[in-house]
Amino acid sequence: MAKAIPIPPPLLLFLFLFSLSITTSLADSCAGRRIHILPLPPRFNSDLLLLCNASFLALSDSPPFCEFVDNHFLGPRILDRFPCWFRSDPRFLEPFFYHRLLSTYPCLSASAAYADAIFLPYYASLDALPFLYSPPLFNSSSLHGLALYQYLRSTHPQVLSRHHGHDIFLILAGVAWDYNQNPEANPVSWGTSFLRRPEFVNFTMLTLDSRPWPWQEHAIPHMTSFHPSSLPRLNDWLFRAARSRRTTLMLFAGGRATVKAAASPTSRPNIRSTIISQCANRTDLCTLVDCSAGVCTHDPLLSIVPMLKSKFCLQPPGDTPTRRSAFSSIIAGCIPVFFEVSSAKNQYGWHLPKSRYDEFSVFIPKEEVVFGGVHIADVLEAIPEEKVRRMRERVLEMAPRVMYMEHGGGDDFKGVKDAFDLAIDGVLRRVQRRVEAIKEGYPNQIYFIDDEEDQKAFVF
Ligand SMILES: *[C@@H]1O[C@H](CO)[C@@H](O)[C@H](O)[C@H]1NC(C)=O
Ligand SMILES: *[C@@H]1O[C@H](CO)[C@@H](O)[C@H](O)[C@H]1NC(C)=O
Ligand SMILES: *[C@@H]1O[C@H](CO)[C@@H](O)[C@H](O)[C@H]1NC(C)=O
Ligand SMILES: *[C@@H]1O[C@H](CO)[C@@H](O)[C@H](O)[C@H]1NC(C)=O
User: Fold this and answer.
1) Strands 117-119 and 286-290
2) Which of 37, 72, 271, 448 could form a disulfide with 316 if both were Cys (CB 3.0 to 4.6 A apart)?
3) Are residues 210 and 99 in the same domain?
C-alpha cells in the first residue's frame, strides 16, 4: 500500500489557486476578446474585387491586379527555391484580413450585443479606386464611404450608438494622407475624404501609414510577399536568413524615377537623392536595386535576394514616410537604417516596440546626411561586427511580428504572434481603453490614450 505523502498547507493553497485560475481561464479564454463581424452586402466587399478588371485602372501606374486574388488574396506562389514567397499585392490586405478573421479567429461572436469590438468587412481602399482613377468621379471624392454609413445607420443604429462607434474597426489598406482631403475642397485634388467624414470620426481604421495625430487610425505593417504556412517553415526561413553570407555593407531598393531625379543637377538635394549618389560612389560597399514601376512588389525576389546578401538596408522616406521594403528587409534579416522617426518608430508601436529600436535598427538623422556631409557607409562601417551580429538576431526576432502568415492549413504556430495577431491585440486594447474612458465619464481622454503594448494606459 502506498503511503500518502502529506502536502504542506502553503502548497495546497497554491494548488487550489492554480486549479482555480485554470478553471476560470478555461471557462472563458475569450473574455474581452470577442469580435463580431458585422455582415455587409457584397457591394461593400466581394463585388469590389471585380474592379480589378476596370478599364479606368489602366490610368493608374500599377498593373491590373486580378491575378493577385489567388491563395486567399496572398497572390500566386513563387514556385522555386523560395517556398512561402508569393507575388502579393499589398492592396489585398483588406480581403486577406477579413478572411483570416473569419476563418481562424477563435473568439468570433455571432451577436454584436456580446462582442467587445465590431469589425466592418469593408474593402475601403478598393472602394476608393473609382474616386482616384475614374475622371467623372474625381469631383465626388468626398462621398467615399457615405453609402457605408447610410447602410449602417439604417440597418444597425444600435451598433453605431452603443459606444458612439468607439468599438468599431476596419482596414484601410493605404496611406492615411490619401484619405484626408477636406470634403469642402474646391477644386479637389487627388485623394478622398474618408478620414475627414464626421460620421467615421470614432471608428478605428487600420492603415499602412498614419498621420501624426493618429487617434482615428493606427498603422499596421504593409503586407510583404512572405507568408509561411507553418512554424517549421517559418523557422527554416529565419535560419536561412541568419546564416546568409552578407558580402555587401548596405543596399537601397527604389524606383528608377528617383534614381533619375537624383542624377539631375536641377533637383534639390533630399535624402533619397543623397543616398543614391553616395551609393553610386561606393559600389564596393553598396547595392542599388532598381524597383521601377512596382516590379519588386510583384516579383519580390528581385529585392529579397540582394537583401539576404546585405548587412544594412537603407529605408529613406519617399512619397510617404513608410515603405513596404522596410518590412521585407526585416524578414530578410537586413538591419533597417531609418532617417526619420515617422518612417517606423512613430507608426508601428503595436508591432515593433518603440523602446527597442536601438536594438534592431540604425537611425541617422536625414539632415546630417543631406546637409551635414555624413557618409552613411562610414557610420555603418564603424559599428563593430559583434554588435551587427546581435542586431541581426534582434531583427530576426522581430520578423514574425511583421509578417502575415498563410492560414487555413490548421497549422499551429505555438503562440508565435504575427502581424495579424498583433493588430487584433492592439485594436482590442484600444477599444477597451476607450470604452472604459467613456464609461468613466472622460470622453476627451480618448485623444490621450496610449494603446502601445508596453506603455501605461494613459499618457497623463
Ligand atoms: C478579369 O479579366 C480576365 C480576362 O478577361 C478574366 O479571365 C478574369 O476572370 C476577370 N477577373 C474578374 C475578377 O472579373
Ligand atoms: C462633377 O463633374 C462632372 C463633369 O465633369 C459634372 O457633370 C458633375 O455634376 C460634377 N459633380 C459634382 C458633385 O460637382
Ligand atoms: C464620437 O464620440 C463622442 C464621445 O467620445 C461622441 O460625443 C460623438 O457623438 C461621437 N461621434 C459620432 C459621429 O458618433
Ligand atoms: C565619393 O567617394 C570619395 C572617396 O571614396 C569621396 O572623397 C567623395 O566625397 C565621394 N563623393 C560623394 C558625392 O559622396
Assistant:
1) unpaired
2) 271
3) yes
* Distance in Å, CA 281 to ligand 4 centroid: 6
State how far Cα 178 lies from the chain centre. Answer: 16
Summarize pLDDT for 405-459 with one digit per residue, the tens. Answer: 998 766 678 889 999 999 999 999 999 999 999 889 887 877 777 677 654 433 3
Q: Which three cell numbers stand for residue 36?
A: 463580431
The CATH number for 312's domain is: 3.40.50
Whole-prediction pTM: 0.89
- Identify whether residues 186 and 118 lie together within a single domain: yes
Q: How confident is the model at residue 265 (pLDDT cuts 50, 70, 90)?
A: low
Specify whether 80 is located in the same domain as 153.
yes
Which residue's CA is minimally distant from atom 12 of ligand 3?
A: 164
Domain that holds residue 117: 35-219
The CB of 200 under 6 Å from ligand 3? The reply is no
Residues with Cβ within 6 A of ligand 4? 277-278, 281
Q: Could you tell me if 158 and 256 lie in one domain?
A: no
Strand positions, DSSP E, 137-285: 168-171, 204-207, 217-219, 248-254
Give the ligand whose atoms come closest to the C-alpha of residue 139: 2
Index of the ligand 2 atom closest to the CA of residue 138: 1
pLDDT tens column, 297-345: 888 999 999 999 999 999 999 888 899 999 999 999 999 999 999 888 8
Q: Which ligand is nearest to the CA of 165?
A: 3
Environment class of residue 265 by beta-carbon count within 10 Å: exposed (0-12), middle (13-18) or buried (19+)?
exposed
- Look at ligand 1, atom 2, and give the residue with the nearest C-alpha: 53
Q: Residue 169 Cα, ligand 3 centroid: separation in angstroms? A: 15
